[in-house]
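Message: I would love a firmer grasp of how sequence relates to backbone shape in proteins. Thank you; the sequence and its tokens follow:
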Amino acid sequence: MSDLVNDIRAQGIWLPDWVASILIFAVVVALALFFHRVAFRLLKRLVASRDLFWRSLVSRLEGMARPAILAAALGFAATVSPLTEYQASTLRHVLLIVFIILVAWMVKTAKHIWMTVYLRRFKLDAEDNLLARKHVTQSRIIERIADTIIVVVTIAACMMTFDAVKQYGVSLLASAGAAGIVVGLALQPVLKNLFAGIQLAITQPIRIDDALLVEGEWGNVEEITSTYVVVKIWDWRRLVLPLSYFIENPFQNWTRESASLIGTVMIYLDYSVPVSAIRAKVEETLAGSKLWDRRVINVAVTDFRESVMEIRILASASNSGRTFDLRCEIREKLIDFIQREYPQALPQVRAVLEGREERGRKAAAE
């Protein structure tokens, strides 16, 4: 390109340096845009018969690749144009930083497209969503960790383009030990949660949409970020806990291995009630319920107390929400049955009052 300018000047046509630079930049930009258009037309034809990921990737990267190609082309133009050394080096430095940021942006976009296409195979609203919750949890944690790594690498790559950073890099190594200790202490909470996130992604004590009993509250895991977990409580409040909490503290996970749960209903009745009648009513209630999954049913007397006996009813449902509703349905229909058929079986307080009839007669006589 510079040879072309020199040939023009050799023929007696004088061009100022700024005009020559504009001419070179214009030609390079036109060639870069032409290359971008041809390249992506070809890529679209190649991926037309491929899967959704490649089609989405080419479609999304088309707009992002244009400024990246222009930045690379302008960097080449700055080298061959008749700019001063300071102007050329400054422009190349700026364009290099822009190119690094654009490449990082494209990598992040490609990662997001892959995650989105991958997670489309799993549905959290399925009846038994254990497998879906497993993959969604792992993918979201890994995605956030990958985002952090991309940002750190991008910042490091941009900083390394400055000579000052390279110059002082050797001297910084000498104090790296002390600096590492100081930084490690300062960033201890952040690093603690970061490693906790990696451990959660691997071991998965909790997953997205798991039903938890934590800090005395019952709810579902709504979101897992790189630093904290959001639990949506049954009354729509949100309980926010750091990731490290689930590594260091005990909690109840009701859907760890399966979405199905066994619900418990405890009722305390007088000794006069026939247990067989209670068992028959529970079986009738569950047989007509759409919430019961036909797997577990049990009615048993589990304790004798001073004035009542404890009857435990077990029934299973496909998930925690249906289990809760099934327990409520059993309570409502069972208490209605007892009130109608065996009202004397409801808990009562008995007392024997000696001489009550005698006092009653005296009061009537007076």
Summary: The radius of gyration is 37 Å.
